[in-house]
Amino acid sequence: DLLMSGLNKENLQISGDGLKILNPTYVSDVIFGVVKASLGNYGGEIFILVNSEKVTVASFAKTVKLLAGSV
């Protein structure tokens, strides 16, 4: 919703205090991780396939506003 609102130059609405943590991850990175895990010999290990970079919803919204030039 934030991305679409930004692209449409609408006001961005954040639910809560905006401090929820996101780990933005490329789909291609997840696919690479799944393929690597399925082809390797990992003996039942658990993998968490997310980016280690953490951003808050508020900082993500600010970036969307800057890039989209929205209000």
Description:
By secondary structure, the chain is mainly α. Helices cover 44% and strands 6% of the residues. The protein is built from 3 helices and 2 strands; from the N terminus they run H-E-H-E-H. It has helices at residues 2-7, 27-39, 57-68; strands spanning 21-22, 55-56. The protein has a two-stranded antiparallel ribbon with strand order 1-2. The longest helix is centred in the middle third of the chain and has 13 residues, at 27-39. It is elongated and about 50 Å long. The model has no long low-confidence stretch (mean pLDDT 89).
Q: Number of helical segments?
A: 3
Helix and strand content put the structural class at mainly alpha
Largest sheet data? 2 strands, antiparallel
What's the gyration radius in Å? 16 Å
Q: Report the portion of residues in β strands.
A: 5-15%
- The sequence of SSEs as H and E is HEHEH
- The end-to-end distance, rounded to whole angstroms, is 15 Å
Q: For the residues shown, what is the average pLDDT?
A: 89
| Approximate shape | elongated
| Fraction in helix | 40-55%
* Total number of beta strands: 2
Low-confidence stretches: none
Keywords:
two-stranded antiparallel sheet, mainly alpha
At a glance:
The chain is mainly α.
Give the helix/strand layout.
Blueprint: H1 2-7, E1 21-22, H2 27-39, E2 55-56, H3 57-68
Antiparallel strand pairs: 1-2
